[in-house]
What we know:
Elements: E1 8-9, E2 20-23, E3 28-31, H1 44-47, E4 48-49, H2 53-56, E5 73-77, E6 85-90, E7 98-100, H3 107-116, E8 119-126, E9 132-143, E10 152-153, E11 158-159, H4 187-190, E12 203-204, E13 221-222, E14 232-239
Antiparallel strand pairs: 1-4, 2-3, 5-6, 6-7, 7-14, 8-9, 8-14, 9-10, 9-11, 12-13
The structure holds calcium ion.
Keywords: Disulfide bond
Domain Fibrinogen C-terminal: 54-100, 106-241
InterPro entries: Fibrinogen-like_C, Fibrinogen_a/b/g_C_1, Fibrinogen_a/b/g_C_dom, Fibrinogen_C-term_domain, Fibrinogen_CS
Amino acid sequence: MPSSVACACVCSMVQQCCSTSYETASGRCILNKRTSPETETADNSNVMMKIPDSISNHQPKDCSDLPPCTKSGVFEIYPDGTNKIDLYCDMDTAGGGWTVAVGPMGNDNLHILTKARNYVMRFEMQDFENNTAYAEEYQSFRVNNEASKYTVSFTGYMGTAGNGFENNNGMKFTTRDRDNDLHMYHCGLGQQGAWWYNACSQSTLNGIYKPEGTTGAKIIYWKTWRNTTLKATGMKIRPIN
Ligand SMILES: [Ca+2]
């Protein structure tokens, strides 16, 4: 991007909200394909304006740093301000700005983010009849560092799924090959999951995907909502304020 040129939209109406990027080949500002409206308006001069480089060079630390009205999609995020990873941003659910904590978003990145800001974690789930529910662990959701075995902490709860994460507060992260839980046996092995097990848990969203109606331990579950295995789940974080 040329040092003197950057792009932004003037949003005269909510429906006209958009964001842009500078296309070097054409030398023009173009509307971001993930934003709304999806087509460029006829009169560019009324839509585009120059903004300071400090904004154009901005590297979002999480999805809440993206411009207003950005559509959901995969974006380049810099959790530690330096290293870039591609993460999915949910810009639709409950006001948007959610950084989806799956795939490349491991516990190290959750630690980097949650030590810097005060986050809400939102757990989402769907059963095989396509009913949905959520649980938000409010205020100061934090994943500690690797040395602490990624101990999780948080306060508060609200949601429709019940507080299935309640007894995970203060727990270390257990995987199938690392028993950090409080059970005399190994929750991660017995349940074939990776979670902040206590002894063991009312919830685990990283279990093995099983057919509709499956019960037992080795499933994806949130037992304050459903006893059977879940069809789809999500984990996403967003800063408070
Ligand atoms: Ca154990």
